[in-house]
């Protein structure tokens, strides 16, 4: 099974049985819980910054994140590599106060239930990230780009 639908035929051409199975969430973990003041932001992004900033991820950042940063929203960003954000390539600067560092997975559901909007960056136009299902399973409001 693969999470990437375009890979199914590639595996089959190699003689391997293959099928597509999308991500999901754990309803025992990704569920509503009371908001936490620790994660009370207008907008939150939980996800790692790009290594190479390939087109889909870069486009997601440009479409979703850039306007919010430029308008100084109450925004928090958790994840690896945001401290190495390529401002020249992306065309804007991330204020240091928005960068919160790594977030333990056990805390993600609290963010999804506490921030008003969760930004969902996508990596590929043909598949959704696991975070899409986790945020929605938690009852959070997800803003993402169309795939």
TrEMBL record:
InterPro entries: YkvP/CgeB_Glyco_trans-like. Residues 62-146 form the Spore protein YkvP/CgeB glycosyl transferase-like domain. It holds the Pfam family Glyco_trans_1_2. This is Spore maturation protein CgeB. It comes from Anaerosolibacter carboniphilus.
């Amino acid at each position: 099974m693969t999470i990437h639908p375009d890979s199914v035929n590639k595996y089959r051409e190699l003689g391997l049985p293959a099928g597509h199975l999308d991500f999901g969430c754990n309803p025992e973990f990704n569920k509503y819980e009371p908001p936490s003041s620790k994660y009370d932001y207008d907008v939150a992004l939980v996800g790692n910054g790009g290594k190479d900033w390939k087109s889909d991820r870069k486009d997601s950042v440009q479409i979703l994140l850039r306007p919010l940063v430029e308008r100084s929203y109450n925004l928090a960003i958790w994840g690896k590599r945001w401290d190495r954000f390529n401002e020249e390539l992306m065309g804007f600067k991330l204020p240091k106060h928005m960068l919160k560092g790594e977030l333990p997975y056990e805390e993600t559901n609290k963010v999804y239930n506490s921030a008003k909007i969760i930004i969902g960056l996508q990596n590929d136009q043909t598949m959704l990230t696991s975070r899409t299902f986790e945020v929605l399973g938690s009852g959070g409001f997800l803003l993402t780009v169309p795939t």
